[in-house]
Write a structure and sequence with these properties.
This protein has 443 residues and is α+β, with helices and mostly antiparallel strands.
Length: 443
């Protein structure tokens, strides 16, 4: 659907009684192939074209979407949206982004689209190579399979406030999952990577081999006695420790008063020297975009600057409620109200590698797997199930399992020490993180 058709949808919505409106067209193609034990398991292809419409009648609004983009289908969509909006409750904070906050073109080229479209045979060969490499690691006894995927998507947003923007991106991925050991002693290890361009993917062999190595490294774990000790969160999962921070500084959480950080804006949250950047303009970034899902211009900013919390993450609605301006973090699908999300998050590295952090800590726990986190959003009390490796005098003494780590995130963040082993693997990246003492519940 071209831009002119979306403008036609907006004009028809205004004619039908809407005071303001925004229209979105989304098109997606994807292909994924999975194999298991050397046999083709699944080939899945998706092709979709959908249109979404949000209309405002006074302070009432409604959002609808549909896959029938014919003239008749669009007319029904518009009539339904306006009728729903007239029946909706009034919301004093619902609105389109004001004209002065909208992104203006020409937009910078972030190199997010690779026109390469691999065949199913190519993806199958990559999945087979990844799984074969995982199964080839000594100690691997079984496989959960290998997979390879490709996608291409187009998102065009037009609003009655004068915004028009196109976002086009591609995605390529390879993953593998291996099983080591037998019976009750089985352990799993997985590895996967996703990139915007095919050429940026690591080799399927390296991904599969890593999955196998991770599984074997977990064999014969022991249980720990409950204790308090330093805990290091490995860089592969360290961002999971910071994900509650993103929820806690989201505008909707602040507006509801349900955040453990609601009174901490402008205050020291982390130690000096700790900086968390959000960069929407990283070339080929998985979270890159010149504008957010309401058309507001994105900005690179330090969410945490030298340990200080600098901003909330706001869409238009939460910004109005808080008497502030949108920060360009609106995130939405075709239907439903906007939420908020970050772009490319990066916790800046420190000066000690993982071995250095372990040496500094002396004796403690290196967490390499996390599951079942629990968070009290009002207080910051947090716990998570995990497994990993116990170390003494800075040296691993072997894998450990069935552990729960717990603490208060305000206290944890204040004592967090970043390592130097930052790897840019996805849209959120962190080096390994050391916390000098946490409660560890074991046997």
């Amino acid at each position: 659907m071209d831009e002119n058709l979306l403008h036609d949808v907006l004009a028809a919505a205004r004619t039908a009684g809407a005071d303001a409106a925004e229209a979105v067209f989304a098109q997606r193609q994807s292909l994924s192939v999975s194999v298991r034990l050397g046999e083709l398991e699944e080939v899945e292809r998706e092709e979709s074209r959908d249109v979404g419409l949000r209309v405002f009648v006074g302070q009432r609004s409604a959002t609808v979407s549909g896959s029938d983009i014919s003239a008749e289908g669009r007319a029904k969509l518009i009539d339904r949206a306006v009728a729903m909006a007239r029946l909706a409750p009034e919301d004093p904070y619902a609105a389109l982004a004001p004209a002065e906050r909208l992104a203006r073109g020409p937009f910078r080229d972030l190199d997010l689209y690779d026109p390469t479209e691999p065949s199913a045979e190519t993806l199958e060969a990559q999945a087979r190579e990844a799984e074969a490499a995982a199964r080839g690691v000594e100690g691997v006894t079984n496989s959960d399979g290998g997979s390879s995927s490709w996608s291409a998507s187009t998102w065009r947003l037009v609003t009655s406030e004068g915004f028009s923007g196109l976002h086009q991106a591609s995605g390529f991925g390879v993953s593998a999952s291996a099983i080591a050991g037998e019976g009750a002693g089985m352990e799993r290890g997985g590895e996967g990577r996703s990139t915007r361009h095919a050429a940026d993917l690591p080799s399927p062999h390296s991904i599969g081999a890593k999955a196998g190595e991770l599984a074997v490294a977990k064999l014969n774990p022991r249980k720990l006695d409950s204790t308090t000790a330093p805990v290091i969160f490995e860089n592969r999962l360290a961002m999971s420790l910071l994900s509650p921070l993103i929820g806690a500084i989201s505008g909707p959480s602040i507006a509801r008063g349900t955040s453990f950080l609601k009174d901490r804006l402008g205050q020291q949250i982390f130690a000096k020297g700790v900086t968390l950047l959000d960069d929407p303009f990283r070339p080929r970034g998985l979270g890159s975009a010149p504008f957010d899902d309401e058309g507001v211009a994105c900005e690179a900013r330090a969410l945490i600057d030298d340990g200080v919390l600098t901003t909330w993450l706001m869409n238009v609605s939460s910004a109005k409620q808080l008497g502030l301006e949108s920060t360009g973090h609106a995130s939405r699908g075709l239907a439903g109200p906007s939420g908020v999300s970050t772009h490319n998050l990066t916790l800046q590295p420190g000066d000690r590698d993982l071995a250095g952090l372990m040496a500094d800590a002396g004796t403690g726990l290196l967490v390499t797997s996390m599951f079942g986190p629990s968070l009290n959003g009002n207080t910051g009390d947090w716990s998570v199930g995990c497994s990993g490796f116990w170390f003494e005098n800075g040296v691993s003494t072997g894998p450990v399992t069935e552990i729960t780590v717990a603490g208060n995130l305000i206290d944890i963040y204040a004592r967090l020490v970043p390592g130097s082993d930052l790897e840019l693997r996805g849209a959120s990246n962190s080096p390994s993180l050391l916390v000098d003492a946490l409660a560890i519940a074991g046997k």
